[in-house]
Design goal:
single chain, about 210 residues, alpha/beta, Rossmann fold, five-stranded parallel sheet, 5 strands, about 50% helix
Length: about 210
């Protein structure tokens, strides 16, 4: 059995499709917590873009359309999940700090939703892999119209996501049993409004810290 990662900190996780406003809201929330004297660490999501590009290049050199065509959906998604798993291991020291808040821009739920979106056959294996990590004290799900999200992704100029992909990913999130416990934020609103809504949702979770 994999050894669970202990948690004494308060863990706040942001989830949602690309372009939903996770990174912006997570950063603003961490700033507000710090301004209120709450010891806070912000962990931003590490882009897998370079890995995706490298695998796609190899696949095309071998005569395939992309990495999914060459390696298959399950293997491709598993490679991404392993990289996320290794990244999350580094949170161990932060999660073990008492009277501390850790704000995450994406947790492992994204990879469970991606498994659904790509119709992989290893969803149960992914759950076993990520079972070492503690459940967050609260998950804030940034919900946004996939069309709006696609425009935002295009404007920032780093990645490109098709509308079909974003729709499938949102459906993947909605299908997760954990979604019933997620707190939903309207990502279409302006950042200040979203931040205020997030603040109201997380306040009961940080009350034990003396806030």
């Amino acid at each position: 059995m994999l050894k669970p990662i202990p948690k004494r900190a308060t863990l706040i996780a942001f989830e949602g499709i690309d372009g939903s406003g996770k990174t912006t809201t997570a950063a603003l929330l961490a700033e507000r917590l710090t301004a209120h004297g709450v010891g806070t660490s912000l962990h931003l999501n590490r882009s897998l873009g370079p890995v995706r590009d490298a695998l796609d290049t190899i696949a095309r050199e071998d005569g395939y359309r992309d990495r999914f065509d060459k390696f298959g959906a399950s293997s491709t998604q598993f490679m991404g999940a392993l990289l996320k798993w290794r990244e999350l291991l580094d949170l161990g020291p932060l999660l073990d700090q008492k009277n501390h808040v850790v704000v995450l821009d994406r947790y492992f739920y994204t990879h469970l939703a991606l498994a659904v979106a790509h119709e992989t056959t290893n969803g149960a294996l992914l759950r076993r892999l990520f079972s070492v990590f503690p459940a967050p004290d609260i998950v804030l799900f940034m919900d946004v119209d996939p069309k709006v999200a696609m425009e935002r992704v295009f404007k920032r100029g780093r990645d490109t996501n098709s509308l079909k992909y974003l729709v499938r990913l949102r459906e993947g999130f909605m299908s997760l049993p954990e979604m019933q416990q997620f707190h939903v934020l309207t990502g279409d609103a302006d950042p200040a409004t979203v931040l205020d809504d997030a603040w109201r949702m997380i306040t009961p979770k940080i009350a034990p810290l003396g806030f």
